[in-house]
Amino acid sequence: MSTNNLLGPLWLSVQLAGITTIVLMIVATPIAWWLARTVSRWKPVVQATVALPIVLPPTVMGFYLLIILGPSGAIGHWWVELTGNALTFSFAGLVIASCLYSLPFAVQPLAAAFESLGNASLEAAWTLGASRLDAFFAVALPLSVRGYLSAIVLSFAHTLGEFGVVLMVGGNIPGETRVISIAIYDQVESLNYSAAHQLSALLLVVAFIALFGMFFINRRWRQR
Question: Which residue has the higher pLDDT, 121 or 205?
Answer without folding.
Answer: 205
